[in-house]
Amino acid sequence: MKQDSRMAGNSVNLPHATRRRSTLAFKFLIPFVLVLSVSVIAVTQYFQSISYFLRPLWDTPPKPFSRIPHYYAPNMSMDQLCQLHGWGILSSPRRVFDAVLFSNELDILDIRYHELFPYVDRFVILEANATFTGIPKSLTFFENLNRFAFASSKIVYDMLPIGDLDPDSRRMPFLVEAGHRRALNNLLKRSGIAVGDVLIMADADEIPSPETVQLLKWCDGIPPIMHLELKNYMYSFEFHVDQNSWRTTAHVFTERTKYQHSRQTDLMLADAGWHCSFCFREIKEFAFKMKAYSHADRVKHDIFLNPDRIQRVICNGDNIFDMLPEEYTFSDLFKKMGPIPRSASAVHLPSYLIRNADSYRFLLPGGCLRPG
User: What is the DSSP letter of 146?
Assistant: First the structure.
């Protein structure tokens, strides 16, 4: 009987113990589910930042460029300068063609054309009536032709009509951009470029220096393709980011030359000009580019386009997309975290910019305030 009673007691207590274990398991499950949910939400919302921070772990840096030293001093002959680079001198200069895709960088293009006008034989420029992301846009260059009348004899211009794109287009912006570059190849053919001419391929805000163009024009034995290392600026020439703008290229033209904006060789001429990104006069131009160019997916929230925020970012030297630096080592990543250091120097900048400083004060140190 006692054994039966113990067995009976155990049979009565067993469901209670099971319920207790189930309750304890449920109590532990709730915080686990909460932590998991919060983690999933955080990773989803901040995936880009996490990815950029961990980039040194998952990405391999590209092969380093072989940098060609760049020599220049005032009042030296081109013969001397070419010899310093290990090149000969031509009996007559090559023709130089400067080819760009244009969106709305009107002021930078004005500086570019004035700076390079004495040295470039043809300015080839293509603009479309819609952005890479499908937003309709005005033909800014065409509507301001009078501003470039000084260079009209050298300008080869065309407009690319795009009728089937809109902001909800499913086409990838980079594919649309590739279509623009193919159209520019066709325009180059109509520009009169010939084998042996030099072709500079760049975005409008990537400006080779006159000293660089002179080397391309006069020196015999230059590489058939080389990248141009440009000083990299953001918002104005007050915020010098680094020396790592490399996409601009100079080609000795052949029948196989195609317009590209990617790595094409391991050779790069050092200190060859300036790249001033997001260097606009008005706040609305910043907002337009943020929505218009190939990286428009970086605009994660509407607040990014708020004029007060954009003005604050410009004056602080912060990242306009609130992103971490795109670097391949933790050392470089940590060095570039935070605002871009200010520079008080306006030396070794485009000479046209300095001669017309009153008109371009917004691009010089202390000129960060922009009209809204």
Answer: G
